[in-house]
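Lab notebook, bench 4. Continuing the backlog of folding jobs that were queued last week. Each job is logged with the same field layout so the records can be merged later without manual cleanup. Today's entry covers Stress-induced protein KIN2-like, a 66-residue chain. Filled in by technician R.K.

JOB TYPE: sequence-to-structure
TARGET: Stress-induced protein KIN2-like
LENGTH: 66
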Amino acid sequence: MNDSQSAGFQAGQAKGQAQEKGSQMMDKASNAAQSAKESCQEAGQQMQAKAQGAADAVKNSVGMNK
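JOB STATUS: finished
OUTPUT FIELD FOLLOWS
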């Protein structure tokens, strides 16, 4: 392998490594976004359950839950 081929090979290797790093970073960002979405959904479900419980408690106290 001459110097020109070696330089080209090394440049190709560097490009491949950079692309892989970029791909890994995108995967991490995607995973973080998915995790945040799931956390928000869970929080929303908890709030909905609490609101339903509060509504049921009011209905029970005023005798509407028969």
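OBSERVATION: The chain has a mean pLDDT of 90.
SIGNED: R.K.
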